[in-house]
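Task: sequence design from structure.
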């Protein structure tokens, strides 16, 4: 199922497979230090990608899937949930701005929600700026690539 859904998302043209894998790898480290059993009791964020119930609810609503919050603790399912969520909201970003979502935009959306990239929302934007800087540092260390 994971392969089919991820390929469907990639074929739809919202994200590039190589780039999304780099982003997921960095997010796993930033979110949980690569710990698939991580849990934050104050937010309910769960698993290696620290997925909150509202993300599960969004993905289930949008894609008519039946994920449960405990799926966040299963790395392969967490990756699918992330990919589906980001694919949808990368499309939302394109619809709103006419631009293709970058890794920065996707990172900001993962941390701050669908409008985490939007500077009109000063509090969220400030938090997602710090978050993106952390993700960017990890990506540079992991792949020795030049991320703008």
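Answer:
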């Amino acid at each position: 199922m994971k392969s089919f859904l991820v390929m469907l998302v990639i074929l739809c043209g919202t994200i590039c497979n190589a780039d999304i894998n780099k982003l997921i790898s960095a997010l796993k480290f930033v979110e949980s230090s690569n710990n698939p059993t991580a849990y934050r009791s104050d937010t309910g964020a769960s698993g290696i990608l620290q997925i909150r119930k509202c993300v599960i609810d969004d993905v289930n609503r949008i894609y008519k899937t039946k994920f449960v919050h405990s799926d966040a603790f299963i790395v392969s399912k967490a990756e699918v949930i992330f990919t589906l969520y980001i694919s949808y909201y990368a499309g939302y970003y394109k619809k709103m701005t006419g631009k293709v979502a970058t890794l920065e935009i996707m990172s900001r959306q993962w941390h701050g929600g669908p409008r985490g990239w939007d500077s009109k929302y000063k509090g969220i934007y400030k938090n997602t700026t710090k978050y993106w800087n952390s993700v960017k540092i990890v990506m540079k260390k992991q792949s020795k690539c030049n991320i703008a």
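DSSP finds six helices and two strands in the chain.
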